[in-house]
Amino acid sequence: MNLSRIKDIKIIALSIVGFAIIQLLLTENIIGSFWELNIILIGINIIMSVSLNLINGYTGQFSLGHAGFMAVGAYVSAILTVKFQMPFLVGLIGGAAGAGTLGFLIGLPTLRLQGDYLAIATLGLGEIIRICILNISYVGGASGFMGIPRYTNFAWTFFIVLFSIFFIKNFVNSSHGRACIAIRENEIAAEAMGVDTTKYKVMAFTIGAAFAGVAGGLFAHYFYIAHPASFTFMASFNYLTMVVMGGLGSITGSIVGAVILTFISAALASWPEFRMIIYSLALILLMFYRPQGLFGNIELTDLKIFKRFKGGRK
Amino acid sequence: MGTMLKVEDINVYYGAIHAIKGISLEVNEGEIVTLIGANGAGKSTILRTISGLLKPKIGKIEFEGQNIAGIAAQRIVKSGISQVPEGRRIFANMTVMENLDLGAYVRSDKAGIQEDLKMVFARFPRLEERKTQEAGTLSGGEQQMLAMGRALMSRPRLLLLDEPSMGLAPLLIKEIFSIIQDINKTGTTVLLVEQNANMALSIANRAYVLETGRITLAGAAKDLAASEAVRKAYLGG
C-alpha cells in the first residue's frame, strides 16, 4: 500500500472519531438544536465550497451560478421523495444527476467564454434557473416547495461531506486533475500539450454542479422546504466568498472558509447589524494581508507538522 | 528525405481580419526550416494553425500524408507534432517536474516517458538541478529550456518553435540555438519561427520570408542570408 493511501485511511479514521464525538454530543443534547442546525449547514456549505473550488480554484473557470445548481438538486430530490415517494438516497442521486446534467448542458456553450464573460454568463444562468423554478406551479412557484420530510441528519450530512471531499481530492490528484490545473495555469499551453481543454472544463463544471445538487438535496430535506429565495445570486457569492477566503486551489481552504463564515453568521445571529460589518471587515483584512486566501494553494496535509506524522508527501 | 509537412494555400482569419492570405510551404523530414518576417507578418499564426490552436478557413495541411487542417489540437499532438509556444507559456505555479509530466500528457507508455525524461535532463542539466522548483522562479533562459523540454516530452517527430530567442541575452540565444541543432541531429524535424533572422538563417536548411500574410521569398537559408533584399530588410544591411 502506498503512503497516500495510508494517509487517506488515517484521515478517514480520524474523521470517524470526530463524527462519533459530535454524534454523541448531539444525542445527549449537549449541543442544542440551534447549533445542530448550524453544524449541518456547515456540512452543506463545505460541499458547496469544495465543489465550487473544483471549478473556480482548480480549473480556473470563474463561475458565479453555483446556487442555481444547488436549487436544481434541491427541487429534483424533493420531487422524487415527495411526489414519487422515493427513498432519500434516490432523491439525492437524482438531484445530483439533474444538476450535473444541467451543468453539462450549460457548460458546453458557456465554457467557451473566458474570464469576466463566463462570470456574467453563469451569474445570469443561475438567475434563469431560479426564475424558472419561481414560475413552475408544480413545485410550488413563489411560495416554495413545501411539505418536504426531514431526512437529513448529522450522519447523512457528515458521510456525504466526507465522500465529496475525497471524491474531489482524488479527482484533483489524478491525471484529469492535472489537466484541469494546467488549464488554469495556462490554457493555450495546456491545449498545445494535448490537453482537451473543452472536455476538462466541462467535466469539472459537471462534477461541481452535481455535488452542488447533492448539497441542495440535503438542504431541502433539512429545512422542510425548498424556496427560490434560498438560491439567489447572493447565495452564489456567499459560496464564492468561502472559496476565496480559504484559498483558490486548496480543499482544506474551502473547508475552513465554509466553517469560519458559517460560524460567524451563526454566532452573530442575534446581532444582525454587526454581522455584515464583521463579515466584510474580515474579508477586507484578508484581502490586505493574505490575498491568496488563508491556505493559498496548500493543503493541511502538506504542512510540516503533518508530514512528520504521515511520513511526507508522495 | 520525404515531405513531412505540407501546407497548401491556407487562409486564416481573426474575426474579419484576414491574417494569412494563401500560404503554402513544405517541411521535409530531418530539416530545419525557418519562417522569418517582421512583427505581425503572420509567423506565429501559421504555427498555431499547424498545431491546431487556430483553424484555417480554406486550405490543406498534411502531416505525413494525413490531413490535419482543422482537427483538434490534442489529436495533432498525438500524431507527432509538438509546439513550443511564443513567450514560453510554462505552467508557472507548477514545479519543473510537473511541467515536464504535462508535456507527456498524451502518452501512456511509462517506460518511454522515463527514457525521454532522462534524455531531456541530459540535454538540459539545469532542469534536473531545479526539478522541484516552481517553474515561475526560473530565469528566462531556463524557462525557454523548460518549454522546449516540455515539448520534447511528447516525443514529437516535428517540433514547432515559436520565437525561442524572445527576451534572451545574446549568449543564451546562442546556447538555445545550438540545442535546437542538437535536437535536429537526433532525428527531430524542426519548423522555427524567428524574428532574429540572422540566427535563424545560420542554423536552417531552408527558409521562407513572410510579409503581411504572404510568402515573398523562399529558398535555401544560405542563399537568403546572402540575398540583398533579405539583408536590407531583416539583417540590418
Estimate what percentage of residues of chain B fall within beta strands: 25-35%
For the largest beta-sheet of chain B, the strand count, sense and barrel status come to: 6 strands, mixed
Alpha-beta content class of chain B: alpha/beta
The CATH H-level superfamily of the largest domain in chain B is P-loop containing nucleotide triphosphate hydrolases
Number of helices of chain A: 13
CATH class of the largest domain in chain B: Alpha Beta
Tell me the name of the CATH class of chain A: Mainly Alpha
H/I helix tally of chain B: 10
Order of helices and strands of chain A: HHHHHHHHHHHHH
Helices and strands of chain A: which structural class? mainly alpha
Ranges of chain A where pLDDT stays below 50 over 5 or more residues in a row are 310-314
CATH fold topology of the largest domain in chain B: Rossmann fold
| CA-CA gap between termini of chain B | 34 Å
Membrane topology (chain A): Multi-pass membrane protein
Protein name (chain A): Branched-chain amino acid transport system permease protein
Subcellular location (chain A): Cell membrane
InterPro entries (chain A): ABC_transp_permease (IPR001851), LivM-like (IPR043428)
Please give the structural blueprint.
The complex is a heterodimer of chains A (314) and B (237).
Chain A: H1 3-27, H2 33-58, H3 66-83, H4 88-110, H5 115-134, H6 154-173, H7 175-185, H8 187-192, H9 197-220, H10 233-246, H11 251-267, H12 272-289, H13 304-310
Helix pairs in contact in A: 1-6, 2-6, 2-9, 2-10, 2-11, 3-4, 3-5, 3-9, 4-9, 6-7, 7-9, 10-11
Chain B: E1 3-14, E2 17-28, E3 32-37, H1 43-50, E4 58-63, E5 66-67, H2 73-79, E6 81-84, H3 96-103, H4 110-123, H5 125-129, H6 140-152, E7 158-162, H7 170-185, E8 189-194, H8 197-203, E9 206-211, E10 214-220, H9 221-226, H10 228-234
Parallel strand pairs in B: 3-8, 3-9, 6-7, 7-8
Antiparallel strand pairs in B: 1-2, 1-4, 4-5, 9-10
Domain ABC transporter (chain B): 5-237
Protein name (chain B): Branched-chain amino acid transport system ATP-binding protein
Pfam families (chain B): ABC_tran (PF00005)
